[in-house]
Amino acid sequence: MIRSFIHYVHHRNSTHNPIGNDWPSITDEILDEFRTDLTHIYKFNSVDAIYITPPLNTSSPLSAATTTSSLSSQSPVDLFKRGIKRDFNAFPTLKDEKHNDQWHRTFVNMARAQDLSDVLNPKYVPQTTTAYDLFWEKQKFLYAVLEAKVDTAKGKSIIRQFENTYDAQKAYEKLEEHHLTSNTAMFAATKIIEYLTTVRINDGSWHGTLENFLINWQEQFRRYERLVPAASHYKDEQKLAMLQVTVHPFRELRQIKNTALLTSD
Asked: 35, 56, 233, 248: which could join 4 in a potential S-S bond, CB 3.0 to 4.6 Å?
């Protein structure tokens, strides 16, 4: 509502009808009519604009109109640069290849929070010149992040393949491909499934609760399925059979079967 009110003030100034000091004249009905009018919704479609607008001089309607017109004509690139504060240091550093699973999850979440997730989508292709210009700005920023935050020998080697083009989209795709399909990844998948098929809750290796054991068991399956093709994923019935052996002699499996513990989702 506050944003709508500020937009209404801009509108009144741009139409040479400033409010001046007559604030009580703005009724709920007037404001509701303004903020639900599609014409005004499209005109004031940038939330960022209200943070960068200098104080309007109500004694100069022409100046106010010029300012509003300038804001509405800003390109997506301008709005990207002035919009969400992008925090370089919020992204995690990959220092060890074996921790890449957690690193990718945090890195993707940070990119999404800072409106950069399309760069991490290998299938995304900008369709217009405006979209391309915006995508290029995002690429430049995220490539700098990758170059600084990937601190493993192999990772640096992959990122540096694109130092002349700043192609963060391709660099991230190649890095993820390495982490999912390299010999190291295949070895990790083998070790995980070996653990899942041999671990027993009463073999002395687990010292926590049954609930935490099940959570860890599910997490290991998630890691395994990330590293292998879908055709190699186990069905829920197979997982249940494995779990029945794993947690014997505990008998709480009737509740387990009805939970999301066994689903890939």
From this structure: 35
Can you name the residues that pair with 150 across neighbouring β-strands?
94
Contact 135, 119 (CB under 8 A): yes
Among 174, 173, 169, CA closest to 119: 169
59-85: pLDDT as tens digits: 445 544 454 555 455 666 666 666 566
pTM (global) more than 0.70: no
> Phi/psi zone of residue 198: left (φ > 0), alpha (ψ -120 to 50 degrees), beta?
alpha
* DSSP summary character for residue 94: B
d(CA 35, CA 55): 21
Do 159 and 146 form a contact (C-beta atoms < 8 A)?
A: yes
Taking residue 210's Cβ as centre, other Cβ atoms within 10 Å add up to 13
110: helix, coil or strand? Answer: helix
Residues 6+ apart with CB under 8 A from 250: 201, 210
Distance CA 252, CA 248 (A): 10
Hey, which residues does 94 pair with through a beta bridge?
A: 150
Q: Could you give the CA distance from residue 79 to residue 71 in angstroms, rounded to a whole number?
A: 10
